[in-house]
Design brief:
mainly alpha; 137 residues
Length: 137
């Protein structure tokens, strides 16, 4: 199912991103039962599951707190003039890397403020994905 990243800089609604791979991945892993089930797996099985999702053990804490990716990454892409759906379709590996970097970012509040009323340059000063997004413009 293609992702439906919005094209405006406004933060998208949950329904606008509900079908996206990023939202789906986060929804599956953020649930307590799924995290418990993952933790209960044998180490090699857990590693295989994480590898299939493009993650590592060190990504788990960020994944648990990474709910901001669902709303901020699409808005950041739009602010930088990028279409998330096109990017995901044409360069899925780049989109995955953008989501992973965003997931690890600890500046979600500042990012949300800047996406709501800042400029691309202001956002670029705090966003760890700014260089990648600039190269894609």
């Amino acid at each position: 199912m293609p992702n439906s990243f919005p094209t405006s800089a406004a933060a998208p609604s949950r329904s606008a991103i509900a079908g996206g791979w990023c939202a789906s991945l986060l929804a599956r892993w953020r649930g307590g039962r799924q995290m418990q089930a993952l933790a209960a797996l044998e180490p090699l099985d857990r590693k295989a599951v994480l590898q299939d999702a493009g993650l590592t053990e060190s990504d788990l804490p960020a994944l648990a707190r990474g709910g901001h990716v669902q709303s901020l990454l699409p808005a950041a892409l739009a602010l930088h003039g990028l279409d998330g759906a096109t990017l995901e379709a044409e360069q899925g590996d780049v989109m995955h890397d953008l989501a992973r970097v965003c997931m690890h970012c600890r500046k979600a509040r500042a990012c949300a403020r800047l996406l709501a009323g800042g400029t691309r340059e202001d956002h670029g000063r705090i966003c760890p994905n700014a260089t990648t997004m600039a190269s894609l413009e």
